[in-house]
């Protein structure tokens, strides 16, 4: 990762944390991008350029880059659903305690804020299309269009189920273990 990209991610992480603090303290609807920009010492245009919307301040996940890296590593080497599982576990299993705490905060805001939850559905639809394309590209006719779509859908649903279990189980739970268990449950159904 280039120095420029590292600086951008550091700035995005800083703005996101400030935004989360404000949302938790005052409520999502009560905080404006202008208030976030003032507290984060960043211009509103910079926030919109990096995040696009106020909802994306909560939804932006630094782990997305790790998932992409994991997909490049695993796709074509193992069956499609296993590639998704491994990519998710690689990305989320490597998080530090601080990063896991941030994931928990984000999860609570996503679950507790209807417009952020709705925006997450749009993010998942885009992610599904990207994953589908990658599966079709790598597995071709073995997977097919319908197989790629279904694999992407169920893989993302297993990821969500793992996150939800982790949120319910509390701070002592392992995110990677919860994601792995969600994939285990899915695979047992598919057998």
Task: Report what the structure shows.
This protein has 191 residues and is mainly alpha-helical. It has two domains: 3-57, Homeodomain-like (Arc Repressor Mutant, subunit A, Orthogonal Bundle); 61-190, Tetracycline Repressor, domain 2 (Orthogonal Bundle). The chain is built from ten helices and no strands. The chain has helices at residues 3-26, 33-40, 44-51, 54-59, 63-74, 80-93, 97-112, 114-139, 144-169, 175-190. Helix 1 (3-26) packs across helix 2, helix 6 (80-93) runs antiparallel to helix 10 (175-190) and helix 9 (144-169) packs across helix 10. The mean pLDDT is 94.
What are the salient characteristics of this protein?
globular; mainly alpha; 191 residues; 10 helices; Tetracycline Repressor, domain 2; Arc Repressor Mutant, subunit A; single chain
Would you identify the regions where 5 or more consecutive residues have pLDDT less than 50? none
Strand content: under 5%
Name the shape in a single word.
globular
Q: How many discrete domains?
A: 2
Question: What's this model, at a glance?
Answer:
The protein is mainly α and 191 residues long. The chain is built from ten helices and no strands. The mean pLDDT is 94.
């Amino acid at each position: 990762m280039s120095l420029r990209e590292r600086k951008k991610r550091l700035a995005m992480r800083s703005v996101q944390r400030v935004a989360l603090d404000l949302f938790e303290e005052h409520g999502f609807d009560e905080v404006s991008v202008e208030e976030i920009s003032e507290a984060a010492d960043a211009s509103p245009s910079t926030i919109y350029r990096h995040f696009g919307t106020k909802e994306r301040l909560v939804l932006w996940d630094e782990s997305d880059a790790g998932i992409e890296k994991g997909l490049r590593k695993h796709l074509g080497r193992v069956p499609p659903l296993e590639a998704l599982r491994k990519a998710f576990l690689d990305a989320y299993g490597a998080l530090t305690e601080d990063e896991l705490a941030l994931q928990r905060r984000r999860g609570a805001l996503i679950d507790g804020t209807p417009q952020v939850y709705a925006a997450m559905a749009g993010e998942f639809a885009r992610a599904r299309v990207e994953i589908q394309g990658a599966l079709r590209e790598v597995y071709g006719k073995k997977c097919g269009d319908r197989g790629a779509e279904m694999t992407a859908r169920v893989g993302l649903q297993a990821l969500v189920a793992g996150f939800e279990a982790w949120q319910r189980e509390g701070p002592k739970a392992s995110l990677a273990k919860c994601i792995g268990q969600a994939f285990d449950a899915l695979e047992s159904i598919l057998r």
